[in-house]
Design a protein that fits this description.
Residues 1-24 and 62-71 have low confidence and may be disordered. The protein has one domain: Rossmann fold, CATH 3.40.50. By secondary structure, the protein is an alpha/beta fold. The N and C termini lie far apart (62 Å). Helix 4 (138-157) packs across helix 5 (169-180). The chain is built from 14 helices and eleven strands.
Length: 401
């Protein structure tokens, strides 16, 4: 019976798209979107130490301006969350999306697409359908994807340091990098962290139901291999367009399902924009990323390297339990902004993070009952949060310019 249940979970979570070879280039659609907003858009390729080819998007400024006109030293690298992409930072358009707000402030904005999402599904030697391609979590994103991209951005902008804006899992990988590669801390002026997803002791909602099966699932996937999670399939897009559009009678059901995962957030809900957002996301990833988070709830209050079980842990870590990430190494200025109704970054879990990081420069519970994605997509999030956050970022950039 267990095998039947897990077989169903695999199919449900992976949503394998066998038409990937005929998919249009998603970068073309995003470039058109950003150009229509009135901004320039560049596509860059970055290859990590372990062979993943990441697509990085750059918005140097409005059309007809060159990146050389960007104010010296004002560079921002933005990191998306689990199953997200660079679109996360762009979907709400001018005057609302943080990426474009920063461009208007004179920042040279770069958007990282982590391995496995819509834009970063290539490897120097592995196909996305090959065994081992999906054997990664946010650990590798912090160890390889982020440092490699920082190095590339600094080289291309002739700068010595930059700002990071992170959402959810993007903040997780930032903490991983700061913990394990502290030499990169001096390359970061300031971190603006939205709904940072690090500790998972108080994880709530629908995902909490998976926690009792975490150890069984890890053992299973270690045998059969890890798989993609919610890729950007045509079938999924058709389904969400039908069910979640503002004109659909099923939109309340769609919203309820989403809220069961991220938290209730009617105050800032943009019903009209929901269908547009779901055309681009979820953008895919590895189920190992989700399992790594689940292990943080299975072993509450911990932020550790991946727990493979006693035997393999002993081989990899010389201990039957994985080591904790040394968060005391994360000494760059870290500003946290989060919501009260966030099931994926519960305020009590954020408090755990605040207690472990040595250089918290702002910790702000945004007014109202905001859920996880309200920090990115909320109707009034600029007034509620971004103005305060960007003002603080500007302070750090003026001090160090």
């Amino acid at each position: 019976m267990e095998h039947i249940v897990f077989g169903f979970v695999i199919l449900l979570c992976n949503g394998v798209d066998f038409t990937s070879s005929s998919r249009p280039d998603p970068s073309v659609n995003l470039k058109t979107l950003v150009n229509d907003y009135g901004y320039a858009f560049e596509v860059h390729q970055v290859t990590t130490e372990d062979g993943y080819i990441l697509e990085v998007h750059r918005i140097p400024g409005v059309i007809n301006k060159t990146s050389s006109e960007t104010k010296k030293g004002k560079v921002a690298l933005l990191l998306h969350g689990l199953l997200g992409s660079s679109f996360t930072w762009l979907g709400t358009g001018p005057k609302r999306s943080l990426a474009l707000i920063l461009v208007d402030k004179g920042y040279d904005v770069w958007l990282l697409n982590n391995r496995g999402n819509t834009y970063s599904r290539k490897h120097v030697s592995k196909l996305e359908t090959s065994f081992g391609f999906w054997d990664f979590s946010w650990h590798e994103m912090g160890l390889y994807d982020l440092p490699t991209t920082i190095h590339y951005v600094l080289n291309n902008t002739n700068q010595t340091n930059l700002n990071i804006g992170c959402f959810s899992e993007g903040c997780t990988q930032t903490c991983v990098m700061g913990s394990l590669k502290p030499e990169y801390n001096k390359k970061i002026k300031f971190v603006l962290a939205l709904s940072p997803s690090v500790f998972k002791k108080y994880l709530g909602g629908l995902l909490r139901l998976l926690i009792p099966f975490t150890r069984i699932m890890v053992n299973l996937y270690e045998r059969v291999g890890y798989f993609q999670l919610l890729p950007a399939s045509t079938l999924l897009r058709i389904f969400t367009s039908f069910v979640c559009s503002a004109k659909s009678i099923f939109q309340p059901i769609c919203i309820s399902v989403i809220f069961s995962v991220i938290g209730i957030g009617y105050e800032q809900l943009d019903r009209a924009n929901l269908e547009h957002f779901l055309k681009y996301e979820p953008a895919g990833g590895s189920n190992k990323q989700l399992l790594h988070y689940a292990l943080g709830t299975y072993n509450p209050g911990t932020f550790r390297l991946f727990d493979y079980g006693p035997v393999r842990n002993l081989q990899l870590y010389n201990s039957i339990t994985p080591p904790d990430y040394p968060l005391e190494n994360v000494n760059f200025p870290f500003a946290i902004y989060h919501g009260l109704n966030d099931l994926l970054a519960d305020p009590k879990d954020v408090d755990l993070l605040k207690g472990r990081l040595p250089n918290i420069v702002d910790a702000y519970l945004v007014p109202g009952k905001l859920n996880h994605y309200d920090l990115m997509l909320g109707l009034n999030i600029n007034k509620l949060c971004y103005e305060r956050a960007v003002d603080l970022m500007e302070t750090y950039n003026q001090e160090q310019s």
